[in-house]
Amino acid sequence: MTQFVIAGAGIAGLASAIWLTRQGHQVSVYEQVPDPTPVGAGLLLQPSGQAMLHKMGLLEAVREKAAVVHSLEGYTGNWKTLDLHYQFGQADWHGLGIHRANLHQILWQCAQSLGVAIHLGNGIKEFSQTSHGVKIEHQQGTVQADGLIIANGTRSSLRDQLDISQTHQPYPWGAFWAVLDSADWPFPHTLMQRYRGANHMLGVLPTGINPASGKICYSLFWSLPKTSFADFREAGMPQLIASIRTIWPEVAEWLALAPETAIAIAEYADIRLSRYHQQNVVVLGDAAHAMSPQLGQGANMALIDAMVLADCVAQGVAQCVAPSEPEKIERYNHNTQGAPDKSSLASAFASYSQRRRKHIAYYQMASRIMTPLYQSHYPLGWLRDIGTVAGRHLPMMYRQYLLTLCGAKQGIFDTKAAIADL
Ligand SMILES: Cc1cc2nc3c(=O)[nH]c(=O)nc-3n(C[C@H](O)[C@H](O)[C@H](O)COP(=O)(O)OP(=O)(O)OC[C@H]3O[C@@H](n4cnc5c(N)ncnc54)[C@H](O)[C@@H]3O)c2cc1C
């Protein structure tokens, strides 16, 4: 049995804990926040993330709380520019819009039912690699483990302690968001967006059941440059509503019914690592590859990370690395107790790094290209609109948009985007 410590009880941390505990390993999760219920808005689970939840046996529980999303539509004025229907990628594809707290609760309950030790209000401060594994300092003491999984989100300071070349670039844009209940919003199965140029974007995502009210809810995202956050905060709700009214009056009326406390702010950053492991330490989720939420992939990628990591630990390097890959990795040796020894765990983590590289690189590239088209002061709105409208009429391009959205593409020239290959 291998002992793993996981930093962070977010999506990546809990999903990894579930996989590794089911494999018979001893897993402890350390979470710095005392109350684990995450605040947050809706997430769009793509076919890739749904496939991971299905493998975990949790998809049905998620479905019960989620809204089925059949399509994404975007408008500049009355001109429909974006019009993506999942079913044209594959007949049974769709998105699932779910409140972050609902997804978190499902993962949390599963981890608890498996007996995962979750230490709340006890963040991990630092770690050092030893000849026996990893020595980890948390807020209440020290613990020794065979492997450390860093899954503590975008602002991870543990990531900085790794000797891995990395960049952390905060985005100059963020978003105001709110979760609003409605029984009669006319687009219950469509992620709707409205744009003005590249510097105004308003989106409404069906989000399933609101955990606070038990009613059907929607997440509203209004993207803004960070430099204007302070002005909006000072001017308060009336200014926000007036500004939204210029682009979508019905949403402004809806928001006007909500209390000021319903509005929150989200900021993002672009995190890039040259690899995701160093000996017996591995980095997952946003801590490894945070990006703008424009493509709606972050939570899906965290779920994929967890599955691939568990696969690499369970099956060993020989099965995890495609034979064509040039990088040579030590075979995954088991010691006499049937548990991986220190060097074989390091090999499994190295294998993880290699296996995740292409998929993460593709989505980071796509995010870097797409985000300024939706969130910048550059005059790029017309280019985006012409591109998306043209794409709708070019079957090959339309298919590539859809495959990218579904979350399984492993490169520009990967035209099959098979979820099973992740
Ligand atoms: C506005 C917005 C919209 C989004 N929309 C989508 C979407 O539609 N689809 C999608 O797939 N993704 C979306 N995302 C991205 C998605 O939310 C993230 O990719 C996902 O939550 C990452 O999960 P994680 O577990 O890596 O990190 P997190 O969820 O950030 O979890 C990290 C955890 O680590 C804890 N922690 C921090 N430091 C320590 C420490 N030192 N020790 C112990 N614990 C620590 C934190 O408290 C937290 O609980 C969106 C993000 C934003 C901001």
TrEMBL record:
Coiled coil: none annotated. SUPFAM superfamilies: FAD/NAD(P)-binding domain. Keywords: Monooxygenase, Oxidoreductase. InterPro entries: FAD-bd, FAD-dep_Monooxygenase_BioMet, FAD/NAD-bd_sf. It comes from the Bacteria. PANTHER family: MONOOXYGENASE (PTHR13789), PUTATIVE (AFU_ORTHOLOGUE AFUA_6G14510)-RELATED (PTHR13789:SF309). This is FAD-dependent oxidoreductase. The lineage of its organism: Bacteria, Pseudomonadati, Pseudomonadota, Betaproteobacteria, Burkholderiales.
